[in-house]
Description:
The protein has helices at about 5-35, 50-75, 80-90, 100-190, 205-210, 215-225, and strands at about 195, 240. It is mostly helical. Among the domains are: about 5-90, no CATH class; about 190-240, Membrane-bound Lytic Murein Transglycosylase D, Chain A (Roll), CATH 3.10.350.
Amino acid sequence: xxxxxxxxxxxxxxxxxxxxxxxxxxxxxxxxxxxxxxxxxxxxxxxxxxxxxxxxxxxxxxxxxxxxxxxxxxxxxxxxxxxxxxxxxxxxxxxxxxxxxxxxxxxxxxxxxxxxxxxxxxxxxxxxxxxxxxxxxxxxxxxxxxxxxxxxxxxxxxxxxxxxxxxxxxxxxxxxxxxxxxxxxxxxxxxxxxxxxxxxxxxxxxxxxxxxxxxxxxxxxxxxxxxxxxxxxxxxxxxxxx
Length: 242
């Protein structure tokens, strides 16, 4: 049960007691008027008996309720009853916003406006923070993509450079091989002797006279040195003998 409920119940009980007291006072005045108006009449017994329900109500409801409210709201360990009553008397009474003065309403309105302004400012700051975070994430993503593109470009350039280096090495090796071959041919040509074909000579006899061997291998070597396609020679022809 809240504080307001306890206060309402106490107020109801207090009001009921005040109504009973007013009723008693009214009965007393009527009895006195009747007594003064007719002195010859025998005075009536105006003593009012206390209702049983009121006694029971006070004993079993009002007193425990009062004690409960006291311990719940005012009682503090180590504090006397006089101090608790003094503190309760010094408490500020809450004012209903509907009964507040125009200045109080304006103050409350200003406070509400300030609270709304703070809420709007907080929402705006949150939105700006979210936008800034999104922008930072996008910039980070773009930077990562640019870095990946740059790394891919550098890797492609390195691959092309390696291919060019290998191609250059191969070209240099081929050039050196060609130069070596030409040098070998020049060397063979320098060592080769010549022979003028005489009458009654053929390629077999020439090979047999110069090399002592008229085999097909020797004949092929002579043909290759002279660019011949067959073993036919002519009188007076000069042939190279490698």
